[in-house]
Amino acid sequence: MVIEITIAMLSQLVVSTAKYIKDNVVNQTEINIDNSKSNHMLRNGQYVLGVGNRINSFSIVVDPKEKMTTETKSVMRESCSMIIYKIGDLPLYLAVGWKIPAIGGGRNKTFVFVRRENDLEIPDNNL
Which of 14, 15, 56, 127 could form a disulfide with 50 if both were Cys (CB 3.0 to 4.6 A apart)? Predict the structure, then answer.
């Protein structure tokens, strides 16, 4: 019995494997901040990333009347992160957080809240 493997077969295997990994192993999360109906700048942006998470794009400032998109990525892990902005010159902060399960499912968890400056405890860089 002779097994013949061609370059085309190997190429197809590589493409199929890459697609499987992208679809099932990489956990991508996109968070959209819509500041278009506000008169306050979101500034002093900070982020806290879970272990193994990377952030692809992040704006430190979101001007009034604008929108911003943040993307995070994790491989073989849950996506668990938080972004925090100071709201204009007010003593308020906007915090947006998420926890998206890794492979195997579960429920997505998100939160959005506004806190006074003295009530906000910003965790260190590991959730």
Answer: 127
